[in-house]
TrEMBL record:
InterPro entries: ChyE-like, Class_I_gatase-like, GATASE
Location of the Glutamine amidotransferase domain: 73-175
SUPFAM superfamilies for this protein: Class I glutamine amidotransferase-like
Designated name of the protein: Glutamine amidotransferase
A Pfam family hit: GATase
Record organism: Rhodobaculum claviforme
């Protein structure tokens, strides 16, 4: 199965040198599931020719806000709506979670409670999963018909599912702990309060559940789908 990765932001240069790009992180996360991957750097307006150029789409995280005025956002929203209409599955992570919600009629805002950074304990349909986070923006109002599949006291709409068409989470299952530690030093200091960053650093290093979420993402991509309307 060919998965097209829609790269909506660029990893910091020094972290990219050590860990690879955001698509590299996702390739490692999902590598054991036997997918073939192609990447489209949509943040630089490199879009696929057709929504059917891949059998599924994965939208990465980004430092940008979905409500900001960037050239790539309107065509990305249009691609999402077309994929959903034509039964091409879409998975969104962080920014990807937010842009799917916005494209389908939801609302995303900068959360007044501040940032979530580092390991967080989410409730996925009654199953606790510990996953890394890095965000201040979040979905405030999900689109009509979206099913809430994950919650967190800080982020009540931490996971959404749109039937068999789209699946999205606010957390970053692709971020290993050392990548988060690097983000804290390269992008966090001076932006996120130091006490929140220091608390995140203390939580790093414990067991996590990225593999569990990777399995759920793979199963979603591969599940049978109803034909497009």
């Amino acid at each position: 199965m060919r998965i097209g990765i829609l790269e909506t932001g660029l990893a910091p240069d020094d972290l990219r040198a050590r860990h690879g790009s955001y698509p590299d992180l996702f390739t490692r996360l999902l590598g054991r599931h036997g997918f073939d991957f192609t990447t489209h750097r949509v943040v630089e307006m490199e879009f696929p020719d057709s929504v059917h150029d891949a059998e599924g789409w994965l939208i990465t995280g980004s430092r940008h806000g979905v409500y900001e005025d960037h050239p790539f956002i309107p065509p990305l929203e249009a691609l999402i709506r077309q994929a959903v209409a034509e039964a091409v599955p879409v998975v969104g992570i962080c920014f990807g979670h937010q842009i799917i919600a916005r494209a389908l009629g939801g609302r995303v805002e900068k959360f007044p409670g501040g940032w979530a950074v580092g390991p967080q304990d989410y409730d996925f349909d009654g199953t606790p999963l510990r996953l890394n986070a890095w965000h201040q923006d979040q979905v405030i109002d999900p689109p009509e018909g979206a099913e809430v599949i994950a919650t967190h006291p800080f982020c009540p709409y931490a996971g959404l599912r749109y039937g068999d068409r789209a699946f999205s989470v606010q957390a970053h299952p692709e971020f290993p702990d050392d990548f988060v530690a690097g983000l804290i030093e390269t992008r966090g200091r001076g932006v996120v309060p130091d006490d929140r960053l220091d608390a995140a650093l203390e939580r790093l290093g414990g067991p996590g559940d990225s593999g569990v979420l990777a399995d759920r993402i793979a199963n979603f991509f591969r599940q049978p789908r109803r034909s497009a309307a």
